[in-house]
Amino acid sequence: MSDCMYPVSFETLMEHILREYEQHQRIYNVTKVHQYTGTDRLTLFGKQLENPLGPAAGPHTQLAQNIVAAYVGGARFIELKTVQTMYGEELGIPRPCIYSNDESYNVEWSAEFRADEAMAEYIKAWVAIKLLSKELGLGDPNGFIFNMSVGYNLAGIQDPLIDSFIENLKDASQTSTWQVCKQWALDNLARFKHIDEAYVTQLDAHICQSITLSTMHGCPANEIEAICSYLLKEKGLNLYLKCNPTLLGYDRVRRLLDDTGFDYVVFDKHQFEVDPTMATAVPMIQRLQALGEACGKQFGVKLTNTFPVQIQSAELPGEQMYMAGKALLPLTITLAAELSEALAGKLAISYSGGADMKTIKEIFSAGIWPVTVCTTLLQGAGYDQLGGLAKQVEAVPYEAVQELQVAQIKDLAAKVATSESLHKTAAMRLKREKQPGFQGARSEDYHCRVTCGNCVRVCPNRTNEMLEVNGEKLIIHIDESCNECGNCACNCIEPCQPYKDRLTYFLDAERLSASTNDGFYKVGNQWGYRFQGAEAVSELADLPAPLQTIVSTFIKELPYYI
Question: Hey, is 508 helix, strand or coil?
Fold first, then answer.
């Protein structure tokens, strides 16, 4: 099993999308395809936005296919995963790297791809959405926004690799990826009912007009301000500065977590001592707002970054992990209240900190938007929750959210702090006490005792599929896009580790050899396999009987992988 993801070509991406939709009326296993039928629009960075919902920069925005899945589900503000000069093995990301049983934790940070490879994923996703929105009538092809994200210091952001990333997403028209995508669309016009040559030739190549800056904990205020000034003045971009929960101070953060049921979360005071404080952050924000106005660009804040805490119970490998989701909600909404009051409501806030079906409508109604989510998509129905979230925000009158409603934000912060329905539940505390980290159980065969399908729904990279073989449901793991994040394992009720225990479809013999998983791959007109202790290459008719039935069903039900 390899933790390397393999990007698919634009042709493969579109073949998968079109064939899956035609055969199953779904796209990358998003079954609740969201169609925007409203007439309201939000205006952001001079562009139109059908709704303010999107996936946060993270596991759901690293590959073209998971970005497409987010749009199809209902997202219209796509926050692309952060890039930096480091990538791949140099990042040192341990596996598994995501744990999302209730609140979530991770030990992964920026994009695993090199910046130019990440850029190619984002361009492919942009063009695919432009085609799908028009062809399937999902919404206005100009009704969504991509927001790029970079880190983590000025020298790195000025590096030619990152500078090229920024400039090519500002205008992708001269990139080879853009040309390939556009040519594929022109060559395949006959496959579309609502797309013609004029539509393709006029596709907008200006993918990003905005950027989110992510800096490391401990980055000094003067360095942060210098980067922001550079991005506003030199790069000409609208900018969100991602802020840390540490702005609230140690005692406030400790009290908020204790009062909301997260008293077991351990962190130290050092990060509060090295991060900027409210006393330095507020005047810096005011200066950057003025600079943005002078440059004709919007400056705002992204609330909030994840929060570094200590690993106590082997939730993930290592000594420190980053907390998000439900536990981040009281910190983020409280900081939103503090900053909005300090700046008299004159602040653009992009939100990501535990928003879900219980809170997203109130957050947006208070004038905080866009609102991006991550943890909730790593649980339950996964991407299929986006449609419900979209309906929540689309029900809010857009004209009422043009300014921050400071009193409403403060009321919401008080509600989050006192409402038990938004706190760690007794049942989840008990579950944590019994099993605080990953369940170590492994399946002894290829079969699920209870085929719940959680691993299909919650995978951010769309790497698990369900087949029905002789009346039995089986999970087939797709090696190609898996990075061993582990999210399917911590959401498995069996329990097992689907990304290691289930039969796996591989691209080729080399990738099967690099894995401990049993599975199969196509080579010419034959099939290679490792199954029940045997390893060989043979005709379909000569495969071991159980595997022959599984592969035959795979060919029939999931032909877009072959």
Answer: coil
Q: Show the 3-state SS of 59-117.
A: HHHCCHHHHHHHHHHCCCEEECCCECCCCHHHHCCCCCCEECCCCEEECCCCCCCCHHH
pTM summary value: 0.97
Tokens of 379: 């649980």
One pLDDT digit (tens) per residue for the chain, 562 residues: 468 899 999 999 999 999 999 999 999 999 999 999 999 999 999 999 999 999 999 999 999 999 999 999 999 999 999 999 999 999 999 999 999 999 999 999 899 999 999 999 999 999 999 999 999 999 999 999 999 999 999 999 999 999 999 999 999 999 999 999 999 999 999 999 999 999 999 999 999 999 999 998 889 999 999 999 999 999 999 999 999 999 999 999 999 999 999 999 999 999 999 999 999 999 999 999 999 999 999 999 999 999 999 999 889 999 999 999 999 999 999 999 999 999 999 999 999 999 999 999 999 999 999 999 999 999 999 999 999 999 999 999 999 999 999 999 999 999 999 999 999 999 999 989 888 888 777 887 888 888 899 999 999 999 999 999 999 999 999 999 999 999 999 999 888 899 999 999 999 999 999 999 999 999 999 999 999 999 999 999 999 999 999 999 999 999 999 9
Distance CA 139, CA 40 (A): 12
- The C-alpha torsion from 88 through 89 and 91 to 95, rounded to 10°, is 100
